């Protein structure tokens, strides 16, 4: 979906958040987070670039570095960060170069370090809001909330059956309906549990509503991000966005009845909780079938992983 870039006047019209209140965008992989990322970047003045895996990976092990006021610990953290693949990808894809001297002189906390990095990215891409998109954020909302107590989270939710269809076309994706259902259910459960500690700083938006009821959805997003009543951003989006509502509920035609039953048997309760329609055909698989589907998914993904490492020219898309 092409989301045209708005004029600077429109993008700047909304009030910017405090620099210590990043926006984290998340959602189960293939839920539409890439599209939502473009909307935030192009309509809400957000400096989002490639996925911020380093925030989670270093946040989980930051205690291993000890007291960051100790020069050796601080310098070791900075050295490891510079070697993280995020920054190599950032330099290849965007006109952004980290000022590591500025980062080294920042307050010696993990949160201050990350906020400075996100701030540099926003500055160098001509944006004012800071934040990052990463599907895995949804599994670690408690971690984000602990390090960034003023952060806001936008969670894109999509019918898991459509996510499952999209996954099978990716080399890294879940390769059968059962595995996709299990992981989609687990992800939604973790994200919604994690959001309970930030009720006023967490917003769920539906992929289906972005396509089928965009004015209401973008208005809610505008109010959540800017803190002001919906206005310029929503009006411009409705005027220029090109939407494809036919992408809603593709599973009805593209999934076999057996696949629909398998998915519903593994995650029907979450589908129902979220208000997605059920076929009523769901059935729980016996343990040996569950084991076979799990093994098939794991082996297929691992094989594709090593194939892409050995032959970098292989696309992530099948």
Walk me through what this model shows.
This protein has 318 residues and is mainly α. It has one domain (8-49, 125-310): Rossmann fold. Helices cover 54% and strands 6% of the residues. Strands 2-1-3-4 form a four-stranded parallel beta sheet. The two termini are 20 Å apart.
Chart the SSEs and their pairings.
Layout: H1 8-13, E1 23-26, H2 33-43, H3 53-61, H4 71-82, H5 85-93, H6 100-104, H7 110-124, E2 131-133, H8 141-147, E3 152-157, H9 160-167, H10 177-194, E4 202-206, H11 207-212, H12 214-226, H13 232-240, H14 251-254, H15 257-273, H16 287-310
Parallel strand pairs: 1-2, 1-3, 3-4
Task: Name some characteristics of this structure.
318 residues, mainly alpha, Rossmann fold, 6% strand, globular
H/E order of the elements?
HEHHHHHHEHEHHEHHHHHH
Helix content range of the residues, please? Answer: 40-55%
Structure annotation, total helices: 16
Strand runs, count: 4
* End-to-end gap: 20 Å
Shape: globular
Overall average residue pLDDT:
92
The share of residues in extended strands comes to: 5-15%
Global structural class:
mainly alpha
What's the structural domain tally? 1
Quaternary assembly:
single chain
Catalogue the unreliable spans.
Answer: 1-16
Strand order of the largest sheet: 2-1-3-4
Query: Which CATH first-tier class would you pick?
Result: Alpha Beta
């Amino acid at each position: 979906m092409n989301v045209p870039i708005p004029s600077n006047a429109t993008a700047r019209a909304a009030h910017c958040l405090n620099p210590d209140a990043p926006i984290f965008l998340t959602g189960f992989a293939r839920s539409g987070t890439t599209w939502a990322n473009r909307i935030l970047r192009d309509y809400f003045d957000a400096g989002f670039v490639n996925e911020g895996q380093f925030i989670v990976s270093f946040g989980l092990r930051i205690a291993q570095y000890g007291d960051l006021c100790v020069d050796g610990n601080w310098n070791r953290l900075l050295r490891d960060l510079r070697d993280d693949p995020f920054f190599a990808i950032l330099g290849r894809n965007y006109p952004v170069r980290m000022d590591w001297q500025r980062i080294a002189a920042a307050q010696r906390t993990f949160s201050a370090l990350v906020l400075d990095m996100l701030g540099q990215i926003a500055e160098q891409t001509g944006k004012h809001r800071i934040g990052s998109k990463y599907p895995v954020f949804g599994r670690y909302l408690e971690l984000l909330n602990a390090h960034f107590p003023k952060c806001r989270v936008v969670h894109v939710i999509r019918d898991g059956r459509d996510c499952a269809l999209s996954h099978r076309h990716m080399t890294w994706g879940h390769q059968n309906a059962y595995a996709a259902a299990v992981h989609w259910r687990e992800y939604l459960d973790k994200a919604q549990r994690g959001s309970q500690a930030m009720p006023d700083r967490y917003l769920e938006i539906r992929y289906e509503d972005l396509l089928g009821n965009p004015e209401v959805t973008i208005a809610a997003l505008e109010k959540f991000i800017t803190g002001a009543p919906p206005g310029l951003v929503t009006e411009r989006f409705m005027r220029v966005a090109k939407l494809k509502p036919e992408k809603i509920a593709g599973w009805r035609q593209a999934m076999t009845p057996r696949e629909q039953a398998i998915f519903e048997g593994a995650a029907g309760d979450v589908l129902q909780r979220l208000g997605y329609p059920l076929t009523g055909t769901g059935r729980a698989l016996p343990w040996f079938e569950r084991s076979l589907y799990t093994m098939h998914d794991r082996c297929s993904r691992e094989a594709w992983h090593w194939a892409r490492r050995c032959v970098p020219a292989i696309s992530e898309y099948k």
